[in-house]
Amino acid sequence: MFSRRTFLRIGTLAASVGIGARPVGKAGNPEDKELPSSIADLKSLHDQAKPITREERIARQEKARQLMQANKLDAMLLAEGTSLNYFSGVRWWGGERLFAMVLPAKGAPFYVCPAFEEGRAREQLAKAPAGEEADIRTWQEDESPYLRLAQGLKDHGITTGRLGVEETMKFVFSEGIASAAPQASMVSATPITAGCRMVKSDHEIELMRLAAKVTLAAYEATYRAVKEEMTQQQIEDLVAAAHGKLGFSGGADVQVGEFTAFPHGSVTPQV
User: Fold this and answer.
1) In CATH, what number does 74-188 get?
2) Where exactly does CATH 3.40.350.10 map onto the chain?
3) Could you tell me the end-to-end alpha-carbon distance of the chain, in angstroms, rounded to an integer?
4) CB distance 236 to 252 below 8 Å
5) Are 83 and 103 in contact (CB under 8 A)?
6) Strand bridging mode 184-188 / 161-165
7) Is 255 or 68 the better-scoring residue by pLDDT?
8) How many CB atoms lie within 10 A of CB 55?
9) So what's the pLDDT on residue 179?
């Protein structure tokens, strides 16, 4: 008898729900006609996800400025990652070329961007607080992005003082900026980023609750669809399909039996 207790014992599920992302299609998932009824019958909740607005990001930037002044920082430096998205709405990941947002304690932010990526940057920044008027400083392949950033700081009256570096910025980036702006001190921006991000607004809490609702609904539908002799990959596919039916991207790492002791799973087929 395959019980709920057995299902919970077979492995660990770690899922991520993309609230605010566009609805996912069925690519890579079984067609609806092949899905178990518990998943096929799910209804999209995507319309319940209200995106973070431009005005909310303006408020986030203003709070960051207040925290910078309280912590005696002259500017905050953000490269790709979740904090960049939090403050600007820009989704930018990976790469060896610097894309950065610089938020002065006083004044509007500016951005440093590879020249060939300017179109992509402007497309995203059109919905950011600065809109189409965003200050983007581009650099060519034979130019230094760090000197471009240092010049932007100088244009904002910042040649000395304290620059807060977001904790996940690559060392090669922070080192390059420090060399280009040697009169400034590089310090942690965590009091600013954490000071903003740790305190959730009502809207953010609403989105988090929706994320939890989607995750639990996807797991419940998957539980009802699991059968004996299924492999971990088949169960993972069901979880992804359930999230897709609910209108979001999401997945899970499923491990069975002895493989639950592997922190990051195993590719060994499991049933």
Assistant:
1) 3.40.350.10
2) 74-188
3) 15
4) yes
5) no
6) parallel
7) 68
8) 9
9) 98
pTM listed for this prediction: 0.82
Separation in Å, CA 70 to CA 73, 188, 192, 198, 199:
8, 14, 10, 17, 17
Determine the Cα angle at 196 with ends 190 and 198, to 5°: 85
Mean pLDDT of the chain: 89
C-alpha to C-alpha distance for 7 and 37, rounded to whole angstroms = 18
Which residue, 70, 75, 92, 71, is CA-closest to 83? 92
3-state class percentages of the chain: helix first, strand second, coil last, to nearest 5: 45, 10, 40
Q: Which residue has the tokens 């610089």?
A: 102
Count H helices and E strands in the chain, helices first: 10, 6
Neighbours of 245 (CB within 10 A): 24
Burial readout 140-173 (b: 16 or more C-beta within 10 A, e: otherwise)? eeeeebbbbbbebbeebebeebbbbbbeebeeeb
* Sequence letter at residue 198: M
User: Residue 32: its pLDDT value, please?
Assistant: 61
| Confidence band, pLDDT 50/70/90 cuts, at residue 1 | very low
Residue 163 Cα to chain centre, angstroms: 23
